[in-house]
């Protein structure tokens, strides 16, 4: 059954292919080459997309499951509110949120696990940060009482005219909307800071704050009224010579807290007077030189302050 | 004879002066022991709540051999009470804080301190009132405080109130 092809089929004439066919063949070949080259790129694109989706998924899952920086709040009296919602017996406050009390309400905030803040009536605060290295709130207006048990410089309270830096302490802080107010320390130390100005306030002492001035000069609560008034005049009313003279004349041993701060706040020409008065009341240790103090040498000032603190 | 008595007097003054530089205690508010940690400091120490007062040993060349103990006696709710006081080191050599071990409340207390630095001895009687440590009535002793010292001081405090 091996039949031969018909003769006429073998003898067909050769015909030249039309030019257009080569064009279409080349186009087809090009398309094939392009599709072969594009396959790995598509593969990588899909791979990357999938990886990105996984990363985003993990990120979203972690964000949803990571504890939010929040503080617990309990109602003590009346009807405090967070934002526009009144809190029940307990609530949580997150970064950026505001807690308000009216004339008849009070609240207590648990600042992570380092302490508590009692929020007095007619007070407004904002939670700023709750990180392991920084717990911070803003006292917009009103009064708070803070009691903190944590390493120094972990808990901060901002007002428009100062930042109270906890150095291991308990204190109350009062401020109006502009930052005018007073800090009273009941345990340990607080550093009141504002634009490079610093007041170190120990237990038993207070420090006023004023808009655009920052923290004033600290004074012990049991100082004479004359001294306290003169300190206020010196800090916020032109630093007159009469006020300085009153402070120097009224100062007791404990009031060297005030005088020590004045060393760096009086005019250079008045500094020797302040030094002389402290030295009269509580002579500096042998390691502290007059010249260094008058030059406001930080180490000498610190050394003298640490020695004076044994008399405060 | 006059010369001899002058010499004795001078020797007495010298001895008293020397004694002034002897081992002793300084008592102060707890704020003296903690101090504000400076901004550039890594110090994490701070005085815990319940610190009654700070104690500093003076003129003790061998602080590693120094010892300090305290006992508090007081009258609370009409009853006489005697409790130990925790003396806690602050991290600064020779500086300690006395920690309250009784429930805070109304009452009068006297803390008797006994310290030694080698063979040298010192002590103190520290009154604790409702507002805490009373600097004005603190008494420094050239020897450890005894129970009789504490009782006498407590009676004095009672009669003053």
Written overview of the protein:
The complex is a heterodimer of chains A (312) and B (161). Chain A has 312 residues and is an alpha+beta fold. In chain A, helix 3 runs antiparallel to helix 4 and helix 5 (256-263) runs antiparallel to helix 6 (271-281). The N and C termini of chain A lie far apart (128 Å). Chain A has helices at residues 7-10, 19-65, 225-236, 241-250, 256-263, 271-281, 290-294, 298-308, and strands at residues 70-77, 81-82, 85-86, 90-94, 98-100, 106-111, 115-119, 124-131, 134-148, 155-159, 162-175, 181-194, 197-202, 205-210, 214-215, 219-220. Chain A is built from 8 helices and 16 strands. Chain A has 2 domains: 66-216, Jelly Rolls (Sandwich), CATH 2.60.120.1440; 224-312, no CATH class. Chain A has a 16-stranded mixed beta sheet that branches. Chain B has 161 residues and is an alpha+beta fold. Chain B has one domain: Sandwich (Immunoglobulin-like), CATH 2.60.40. Helix content of chain B is 23%, strand content 40%. Chain B contains 3 helices and 10 strands; from the N terminus they run αβαβββββββββα. Chain B has helices spanning 2-20, 31-34, 147-160; strands spanning 24-28, 51-58, 66-76, 79-84, 86-89, 95-99, 108-117, 120-129, 132-133, 139-141. In chain B, the strands form 2 sheets. In chain B, strands 3, 4, 7, 8, 9 and 10 form a 6-stranded antiparallel beta sheet that branches. A 4-stranded antiparallel beta sheet of chain B has the order 1-2-6-5. In chain B, a hairpin with a 2-residue loop joins strand 3 (66-76) and strand 4. Chain B starts with a helix and ends with a helix. At the A-B interface, strand 11 and strand 12 of A face helix 2 of B.
């Amino acid at each position: 059954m091996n039949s031969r092809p018909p003769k006429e089929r073998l003898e067909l004439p050769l015909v030249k292919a039309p030019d257009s066919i080569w064009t279409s063949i080349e186009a087809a070949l090009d398309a094939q080459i392009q599709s072969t080259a594009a396959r790995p790129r598509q593969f990588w694109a899909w791979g990357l997309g999938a990886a990105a989706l996984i990363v985003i998924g993990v990120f979203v899952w972690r964000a949803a499951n990571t504890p939010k920086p929040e503080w617990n709040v309990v109602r003590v009296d009346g009807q405090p509110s967070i934002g526009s919602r009144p809190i029940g017996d307990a609530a949580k406050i997150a970064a950026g949120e505001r807690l308000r009390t009216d004339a008849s309400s009070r609240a207590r905030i648990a600042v992570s696990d380092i302490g508590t803040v009692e929020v007095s009536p007619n007070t407004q605060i904002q939670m700023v940060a709750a990180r392991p290295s920084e717990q911070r709130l803003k006292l917009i207006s009103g009064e708070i009482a803070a009691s903190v048990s944590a390493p120094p410089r972990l808990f901060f309270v901002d007002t428009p005219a100062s930042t109270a830096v906890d150095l291991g302490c308990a204190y109350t802080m009062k401020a109006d909307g502009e930052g005018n107010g007073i800090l009273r320390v009941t345990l340990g130390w607080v550093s009141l800071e504002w634009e490079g100005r610093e007041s170190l306030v120990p237990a038993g002492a207070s420090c006023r704050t004023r808009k655009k001035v920052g923290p004033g000069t600290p004074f012990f609560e049991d100082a004479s009224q004359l001294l306290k008034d003169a300190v206020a005049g010196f800090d916020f009313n032109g630093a007159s010579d009469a006020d300085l003279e009153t402070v120097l004349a009224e100062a007791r041993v404990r009031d060297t807290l005030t005088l020590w701060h004045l060393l760096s706040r009086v005019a250079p020409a008045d500094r020797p007077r302040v030094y002389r008065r402290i030295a009269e009341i509580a002579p500096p240790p042998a390691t502290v030189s007059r010249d260094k103090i008058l030059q406001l040498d930080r180490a000498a000032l610190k050394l003298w302050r640490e020695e004076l603190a044994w008399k405060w | 004879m006059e010369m001899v008595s002058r010499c004795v007097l001078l020797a007495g003054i010298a001895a008293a002066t020397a004694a002034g530089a002897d081992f002793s205690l300084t008592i102060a508010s707890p704020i003296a022991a903690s101090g504000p940690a400076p901004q550039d400091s890594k110090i994490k120490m701070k005085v815990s709540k319940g610190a009654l007062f700070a104690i500093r040993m003076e003129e003790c060349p061998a602080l590693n051999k120094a010892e300090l103990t305290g006992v508090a006696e007081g009258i609370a709710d009409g009853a006489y009470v005697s409790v130990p006081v925790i003396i806690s080191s602050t991290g600064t050599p020779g500086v300690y804080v006395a920690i309250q071990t009784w429930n805070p409340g109304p009452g009068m207390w006297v803390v008797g301190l006994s310290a030694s630095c080698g063979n040298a001895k010192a002590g103190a009687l520290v009154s604790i009132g409702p507002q805490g440590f009373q600097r004005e009535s603190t008494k420094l002793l050239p020897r450890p405080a005894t129970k009789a010292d504490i009782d006498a001081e407590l009676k004095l405090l009672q009669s003053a109130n």
